[in-house]
Specification:
The protein has helices spanning about 10-20, 40-55, 75-85, 100-115, 125-130, 150-160, 210-220, 235-245, 270-275, 290-295, 300-310, 320-335, and strands at about 25-30, 60-65, 95, 115-120, 170, 185-190, 205, 225-230, 250-255, 260, 320, 340-345, 345-350, 360-365, 375-380, 385, 405-410, 415-425, 430-435, 455, 455-460, 465-470, 495-500, 515, 520-525, 535-540. It is α/β, with parallel strands linked by helices. The structure holds one RNA strand of 75 nucleotides.
RNA sequence: AGGACUAUAGCCAAGCGGUAAGGCAAUUGGCUCUGAACCAAUCAAUCGAGAGUUCGAAUCUCUCUAGUCCCGCCA
């Protein structure tokens, strides 16, 4: 069954448009600016753009909004494409806003000819100063009433590189007294002598977002232009440009709330700082909420998408608890990941009554939830490793695992009873001695007596040493602020590296293979790191709180 | 002379005039060869506040309050 959004205010709006005949088909677009890596916050926008179109058998374009050469880099283009593909989406067309520069220029001329745009010679600082404030109207530019002929000529000369950067802009002539700041004669073209990745040095004037975006949408025949809440105030301007530039198609802009995760760093600026100042391994560090990070962390696109689909779309910016995301990851892995025993912090146990030199192979279900996955054979002998915290010399109340005199089950094997605790001269526990009961073999149907605890183990001779990384999400104490001391509040325990053991049949493991290490949670084979030929496992997510001690 | 938007449990939310869905989290039991999973039960007597309209209001109206966004030649 293919999951998608259940109906939401966007889908019902689109449905109504179709019903009323406002549009005959649905075309959406995902319009990233190539100036950074995609992160979890983008997934809602991506899925909404693609899924809404899919719902109505429409199309979705990928359009790079590359109207500002000073901030953009082709480096990001490929990563964005890769991430969208990884999420499982295919765009119907790949477009660039920069491909519309000629058309946009001509539309600006239409505006000038209608007396709705003018060249302003004021400096950026003057324009800013005369824009007014939130509570006071702006002041009209002294250049606002230039003749159409003069504006036409000036604009052409701007294009012809006759004026220095910053000396002139083209502005829409709307209303300097509008309560909506966006309508106070917005700048629509600025002069920038920066080479553009696509158009090179052909242009020195570049259109602003507010002008380029609605017209690009109209040019492509976009019907529904989905964007985030902060663009609500831009909608009147969006409609104004589409109307006054006499575009044939009239797209509808619909705004939705963004999706944030609690205490998670998501802003491009802070993400970049983390990477550049080497707080993390790179853009794909498993602790980051970038799409690449989540991927390397072991999250699947399906889990991510289900999470986003089930987190209803509304007009509030939602801050969702991380545990909500983790729930979907566990749900996904529960039925797909093979189970295996692993010991992260080893403690040796010698089973004193087990014959020396004997090895037997026991059956272990690969995933009890999914019997079709079958069984595997695991070696068992006299010496094994168990988890350090599965033993307590002095048990606390309600501790069901191993302690002197207590009997527990070794999963898939036998009951063992702790007989001795061996320590070094410093008093540290070095090994445990235990006895086993052959009658209690797993699968034998033994019912003679019961034990309260079952613990996991790995054979001490037959195993694979590996490096295990326990990642936590890189969190900050409070919601992300604009101030940088944020980095002093980073979770210091975001990475713990352990050397442990896994079962022998994991030796042919491949990058991105996922497993459940029983109680320890779900793990993925890291695609990048191999330490001394050791397998490196990243913890994807832990199981839900295990011990209520 | 400010404007736009939002407000339903710890978090995300459905609801659109007929008497408060669901998910996450939490709590309590049960079960268990993973203290997981699973199963069962519990979890909104101010739906931001107040007033009004109505037989009936979370839903309509008014006023207020709180939060978010808007004063880039960024997107």
């Amino acid at each position: 069954m293919v999951k998608t959004y259940s109906s939401n205010f966007i889908s019902t709006t689109i449905e109504n448009h179709l019903k009323e005949g406002k549009y005959k088909e649905v075309i959406t677009r995902f319009p990233p600016e190539p100036n950074g890596y995609l992160h979890i916050g983008h997934i809602r926008a991506i899925t909404l753009d693609f899924e809404m179109a899919k719902l109505f058998n429409g199309k979705t374009n990928l359009r790079f909004d590359d109207t500002n050469p000073t901030k953009e880099d082709i480096e990001f283009v490929n990563s964005i494409k890769e991430d969208i593909n990884w999420l499982g989406y295919k765009w119907d067309n790949l477009f660039w806003a920069s491909n519309y520069f000629d058309e946009l220029y001509n539309r600006a001329i239409i505006l000038i000819k209608k007396g709705l745009a003018y060249v302003d010679d004021q400096s950026a600082e003057e324009i800013s100063r005369t824009r007014g404030t939130l509570t006071e109207p702006g002041i009209e530019s002294p250049f606002r009433n230039r003749s159409i002929e003069e504006n036409l000529s000036l604009f052409e000369r701007m294009k012809n590189k006759e004026f220095p950067e910053g000396s002139k802009v083209l502005r829409a002539k709307i209303d300097m007294a509008s309560p909506n700041m966006n309508m106070r004669d917005p700048v629509i073209y600025r002069i920038t002598y920066t080479s553009h990745h696509n158009t090179g040095d052909k242009w020195c004037i570049y259109p602003m977002y507010d002008f380029a975006h609605p017209l690009s949408d109209a040019i492509e025949g976009i019907t529904h232009s989905l964007c985030s809440l902060e663009f609500e105030d831009h909608r009147p301007l969006y409609d104004w440009f589409v109307r006054e530039c006499e575009m044939e198609n009239t797209p509808t802009q619909i705004e939705f709330g963004k999706l944030y995760l609690s205490n998670t760093i998501i802003s491009k600026r802070n993400l970049r700082k983390l990477v550049e100042e080497k707080y993390v391994d790179g853009w794909d560090d498993p602790r980051l909420a970038t799409i690449r990070g989540l991927r390397r962390r072991g999250y699947s696109p399906e889990a991510l998408k289900e999470f986003v689909f089930d987190t209803s779309v509304s007009k509030t910016n939602a801050v969702v608890d991380y545990q909500q995301l983790e729930h979907y990851i566990r749900e996904d892995l529960k039925l797909s990941a093979p189970r295996t025993m692993a010991v992260l912090r080893p403690l040796k146990v010698i089973i004193t009554n087990y014959p020396e030199g004997q090895v037997e192979y026991l059956d272990e279900p690969i995933n009890k939830e999914v019997p079709e996955m079958g069984m595997r054979k695991i070696p068992f002998s006299r010496e094994i490793y168990i988890e350090q915290d599965d033993f307590m010399e002095v048990p606390i109340p309600k501790y069901y695992r191993l302690y002197p005199g207590n009997e527990v089950r070794l999963a898939n094997a036998y009951f063992i009873k702790c007989t001795d605790v061996i320590k070094d001269e410093k008093g540290n526990i070095t090994e445990i001695h235990a006895t086993y009961d052959p009658e209690t073999k797993s699968g034998s149907g033994f019912t003679g007596r019961k034990v309260k605890g079952t613990i996991h183990w790995v054979d001490a001779k037959h195993n694979i040493p590996c490096e295990i990384r326990l990642y936590d999400h890189l969190t900050i104490e409070n919601e992300e602020t604009k101030d940088l001391p944020v980095f002093e509040k980073l979770n210091p325990n975001s990475l713990e590296i352990l050397n442990g053991y896994v079962e022998t049949d994991l030796k042919d493991v491949k990058p991105y293979d996922k497993f459940q290490f029983n109680r320890h949670g779900y793990f993925v084979v890291d695609p990048k790191d191999t330490k001394d030929n050791k397998i490196v496992f990243n913890r994807i997510v832990s199981l839900k709180s295990s011990f209520k001690i």
